[in-house]
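Researcher: Here's a chain I'd like modeled. Treat it as a single chain, no partners, no ligands.
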Amino acid sequence: MQKETEIKLRVSRETLAALREHPLLKKRNKSGWERRELTNQYFDTPERDLAKAKVALRLRRDGEEVIQTLKTRGQSVAGLSERNEYDWHLAKAKLDVKKLDGECWPEALAELDKKTLKPIFTTDFVRERAEIAWGRGKAKVVIEAALDLGFVIAGKQKEEICELELELREGDPSALLELAAELAEKLALMPCDISKAERGYRLFDANSYSLSLPAPQLSAEMPLDDAFAALGWHLLASSQRLAEQYRFNGHWRLLQDWVAQLTELRALLGSLGQAAPRQSTSELRSALDALLEDWRPLVHAGQEDEDVRKAAPEQFLEELEDVRWGLFSLNTSRWLLARSWTAERTTRGNRQGAAQLQNWLPRLLAEEATSLQLGRYQQQPEDLAEQLPRIERIQAWLHLARGVLELPELDRLFGEMNKLAQLAETDISDEVLEARVQQALTVFQSRAWKTLLRL
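Model: Modeled as a single isolated chain. Structure tokens:
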């Protein structure tokens, strides 16, 4: 068994060609590119039991070699994946189910009749592979770079494979993100943790690619730094999966959810105070603001305009063909991995970062609720939009840390705050102004809001 740590980056054919000649890879590539044709047959039961258990089983022909591989459930965070991989070299291209036993076979599949395993789809592609090595401080880094071009084929359906895979052979996992980010400065690279196997299953069922990642398990005793890191990784990974699926099928709801994830991440960044000094979040906030400045108005307009919704998938493809999204994703991953917001903090900032969530969060929400001055906006509803960032900061924590908060009727408050946020974004009319007044009053009179003001 070996542990596989890699990052997958979706690219265009033009970018794939440019990577082959990229100066950074040329400089660190001492042996040139090795070209191989790989044919892969994936197996599962008719009921897709392996897919349900997050297991991939394949036979690969690589030249004269035949390799049977089992990949088990692993973890994937924002495009950087880690999972166990078992390989067996076989004498002929026939699945050997006797190898699928012992520690490699998941307990969840212990009762599975392996005779029901059948071929279900293929992934056939040309791989150009090179060993990229360099010194990183006192440590050596070795990464296998693979340029893959081919197709996933399931019955009469197929999807192109065009991607860069970077797999860690030696060194720290952060080196994968570092190399990818350097390449992404001039080339459009889209971090994407969908495997070739998942693409095959998606051709059978477009909804098989899971978008609902497990929510981070926050606890009342968790330090703020740990809670923010967990939420940041979750929002980034979710936004990447939504981007991949929207690119695939163009369903409008996915674009709305993508913008919502980025909005929550921006709100969290703005809520940390001295725990995340502004200088440490400046580049990330600027990148998020630029994305949201372009996409929030479009999503807002698309709620009422079908032509906007129809045009959006093509506009999103143009976004992905630019370097912006990939560079933002990779730099945010590096920032989270290094916990860069903790660098050069004051003593007070360190205390805030170490504070337990149950102590820090109620104080934050009480301060934000008081500063929102809902009474004022019952008198001046035309100015409510200026408070949208504060409303979104409150909303983000009510949504993402609801299990830590002890507030009466919290779900009701969350729903009413959603309505207030929507009204703050809506163009002003007499009807909207009246609705803002009434909604501000509804929130102000709620039990949960009154409790917040007393915290």
